[in-house]
Amino acid sequence: MTIPSLPLLMVEPVVCAALLEDLGRAGDLTTDAIVPPSERARTALVARQPGIVAGLDAAATAFRLVDPAIEVSVQRPDGTRLAPGDLIATIAGPARGMLTAERVALNFLGHLSGVASAAATLVEAVRGHKARICCTRKTMPGLRALQKYAVRVGGGMNHRFGLDDGVLIKDNHVAVAGGIRRAILAARRGVGHLVKIEVEVDTLDQLEEALATGVDAVLLDNMTPDQLAVAVRMIDGRAIAEASGRITPLIAPAIAASGVDLISAGWLTHSASVLDIGLDWQA
C-alpha cells in the first residue's frame, strides 16, 4: 500500500530547525574552507543494512534548503524494502551544499527508516492474526508527525496524535477521579459526541467495571497472553481491545493470538534503532 507523503508544510519547519541547529552562528566552517564554490558533485544514498526506507522527503528537503540547485533523484521510494548495497537515491549539484546538508539529511533518513523497519518487524510478527500494530505518543519532541508517518510506512497504524484527538483514561486519571466508573462518566460529560473514550485497565475486575459503564476501547496493560484471551472473551466485541506493555517481536505473536484488535508499542518511536544509510561520493 502506498502511504501519502506528508505535506511539505509539515516537513520543512522540522528540517529547517535541524539545519539551523547544525549551522550554528558561522555556518559550515570545514566545507566553506575546503570546497570551492564552483565545485559540483554526484553522490548516492546507499543502504548499509536491510530494512524499510522512510524519510526521503525530509532528506531531500535538507539538501534543497541548503542549496536549491541540488537535485535528488529517488530510485527506491519510502516503503521499499532494502538490502545492503541498494541504491536509494542519487544527489547531484553544488558540492558545498551537499556536504553541509549531509548529516541532517542522513539523521532524518536513518532514524525514520529505523522506525519504519521496527514497525515492519512487529507487523510481520503478527501476520495471520487480526491484530494491528500501532505506535503511541511516546515520540521525540518535534518529530511526532514524521515518526508516525514512518510507522505507517512500515505497515503499522497510529494511536492518538495528541491529547486533543481522543480520551485515554490512565491510572492517574482514575486515581484522581476516585474510580474507573467516575472517570468514564466525567470524561463523557466533558467531551463532544464524536470523541472516543478509551480506558486503561490492569486487571479483569477493572475491565468488568469499564465495560459495565461503557467505553469505546480498553487498553489492556501488561497482561499475559492468557489474561488477554480472557479479557477478549469478556469484551465480546463491545469495545476495541488494545494490548500494550513490554511488546517485543518474540511475544507479539502470542499476544496477537489472544484475539486483541490492536497492539501498541512506544519503543517503535522512542527507541527504534537507526537504519544504517550512507552518502557515497561518486567520481
Automatic annotation (TrEMBL):
Enzyme Commission number(s): 2.4.2.19
CDD domains reported in the protein's UniProt record: QPRTase
Residue ranges constituting the Quinolinate phosphoribosyl transferase N-terminal domain according to the UniProt record: 28-113
InterPro entries in alphabetical order: Aldolase_TIM, NadC, NadC/ModD, Nicotinate_pribotase-like_C, Quinolinate_PRibosylTase_N_sf, Quinolinate_PRibosylTrfase_C, Quinolinate_PRibosylTrfase_N
Domain called Quinolinate phosphoribosyl transferase C-terminal: residue spans: 115-280
Pathway it works in: Cofactor biosynthesis; NAD(+) biosynthesis; nicotinate D-ribonucleotide from quinolinate: step 1/1
Protein task: Involved in the catabolism of quinolinic acid (QA).
Stated name of the protein: nicotinate-nucleotide diphosphorylase (carboxylating)
